[in-house]
UniProtKB/TrEMBL annotation:
<keyword id="KW-0350">Heme biosynthesis</keyword>
<keyword id="KW-0963">Cytoplasm</keyword>
<dbReference type="GO" id="GO:0006783">
    <property type="term" value="P:heme biosynthetic process"/>
</dbReference>
<feature type="binding site">
    <location>
        <position position="292"/>
    </location>
    <ligand>
        <name>Fe(2+)</name>
    </ligand>
</feature>
<keyword id="KW-0627">Porphyrin biosynthesis</keyword>
<dbReference type="GO" id="GO:0046872">
    <property type="term" value="F:metal ion binding"/>
</dbReference>
<dbReference type="InterPro" id="IPR033659">
    <property type="entry name" value="Ferrochelatase_N"/>
</dbReference>
<keyword id="KW-0456">Lyase</keyword>
<protein>
    <recommendedName>
        <fullName>Ferrochelatase</fullName>
        <ecNumber>4.98.1.1</ecNumber>
    </recommendedName>
</protein>
<keyword id="KW-0408">Iron</keyword>
<dbReference type="GO" id="GO:0005737">
    <property type="term" value="C:cytoplasm"/>
</dbReference>
<dbReference type="InterPro" id="IPR001015">
    <property type="entry name" value="Ferrochelatase"/>
</dbReference>
<dbReference type="InterPro" id="IPR033644">
    <property type="entry name" value="Ferrochelatase_C"/>
</dbReference>
<feature type="binding site">
    <location>
        <position position="191"/>
    </location>
    <ligand>
        <name>Fe(2+)</name>
    </ligand>
</feature>
<comment type="pathway">
    <text>Porphyrin-containing compound metabolism; protoheme biosynthesis; protoheme from protoporphyrin-IX: step 1/1.</text>
</comment>
<keyword id="KW-0479">Metal-binding</keyword>
<dbReference type="GO" id="GO:0004325">
    <property type="term" value="F:ferrochelatase activity"/>
</dbReference>
Length: 337
């Protein structure tokens, strides 16, 4: 009987919040040339001699804030999604979970999948919006591994799904637990990327700033991370009845000022200073709670909000293992069989 393998891939997590486990995770992640796209030697010096030695200790403290009795949310929600998806898809599919960095490793999981002799493999990166540093890296890694197989089955990559009805439905369902009338403003915060990353999307060599990515999506910018983030926001806001003047799209987790703007923390500060008391924050690029949602938005942005006069900045939880989200993944898989 023909059987399809499904590989669900997320970014990754240290094995524990201890420095000894955070250090190799950061090293593997930051040495990826799709993440830090500078010359090899410069990247090795920057990552291995500067960032990792000094950042491992501070990152370990932050991971301890995130960790629960079940471990890393990114991992245990991934396992829940895998099991729920397997149940929905049935025996004609084999669902597997891997992380781009650390464990369960793509090398080990794809080795297991090779032994299943699948007729077809569908790779589903858990990143709704294409970015070279996330989706691109996961796809490249899978291709490198499978390229060494003697028998390579039919392979399909789902590179982005920022506008898929199921994904939008899941985001809307998450928001319904809150009374939107209580909030004066809505923040849609996406993970930032360097401006040069989105500039590289344009094959004619023009920079992203030459395109109207905040307001329209075209054949030219359909793989521009910035453009698809704005487009997802418009779809969610329309479904929830949020007028344009009441929401802001922004980007978080920047490393320097040459990343996509506006910066989420600055938006939070400005809105609080303007006299607003309650803000609801969405994070549609993160399908599972992680450092960037639970800690950065849920804790750090709340502190900024209060420091400048605000009262409550409420985070809308990520999709995690919400049944509507798992149904959406199932639909996207079935569409490609």
């Amino acid at each position: 009987m023909d059987k399809t393998g499904v590989l669900v891939v997320n970014l990754g997590t240290p094995d524990s919040p201890k420095v000894k486990d955070v250090r190799p995770y950061l090293s593997e992640f930051l040495n990826d040339p799709r993440v830090i796209d500078i010359p090899w030697l410069a990247r090795k010096i920057l990552v291995n001699l500067i960032i990792v030695p000094f950042r491992s200790f501070s990152s370990s403290k932050i991971y301890k804030e995130l960790w629960t009795e079940k471990g890393s949310p990114l991992l245990y929600y991934g396992e829940e999604v895998k099991n729920m998806l397997q149940e929905r898809l049935g025996d004609q599919f084999g669902v597997h979970l891997a992380m781009r960095y650390k464990n369960p490793s793509m090398d080990d999981v794809l080795a297991e999948m090779r032994m299943q002799n699948y007729t077809k493999i569908i790779v589903f990166p858990m990143f709704p919006h294409y970015a070279s540093a996330s989706t691109g890296s996961a796809i490249e890694k899978a291709m490198k591994i499978m390229s060494k197989w003697w028998v390579i089955p039919e392979v399909t990559f789902i590179s982005q799904y920022w506008d898929h009805p199921g994904f939008i439905n899941a985001c809307v369902e998450r928001a319904k637990q809150y009374d939107l009338n209580e909030y004066e403003h809505f923040l849609f915060s996406y993970h930032g990327v360097p401006e040069r990353h989105v500039d590289k999307v344009y094959l004619d060599g023009s920079p992203c700033s030459d395109h109207n990515c905040e307001n329209e999506l075209t054949d030219t910018n359909k793989y521009c991370y910035k453009a698809t983030c704005f487009a997802t926001t418009r779809l969610i806001a329309e479904r929830l009845g949020i007028p344009e003047e009441k929401y802001t799209v922004a980007f978080q987790s920047r490393l320097d000022n040459k990343w996509l703007t506006p910066f989420s923390d600055k938006v939070v500060e400005e809105k609080a200073k303007s006299g607003m008391k309650k803000m609801l924050a969405f994070s549609p690029a993160f399908v599972a709670d992680c450092l960037e949602t639970t800690v950065e938005i849920g804790i750090e942005y709340q502190e900024i909000w209060e420091e400048h006069g605000g009262e409550k900045l409420q985070l809308v939880e990520s999709l995690n293992a919400h049944p509507v989200w798992v149904d959406a993944i199932k639909d996207m898989i079935i569409e490609r069989v």
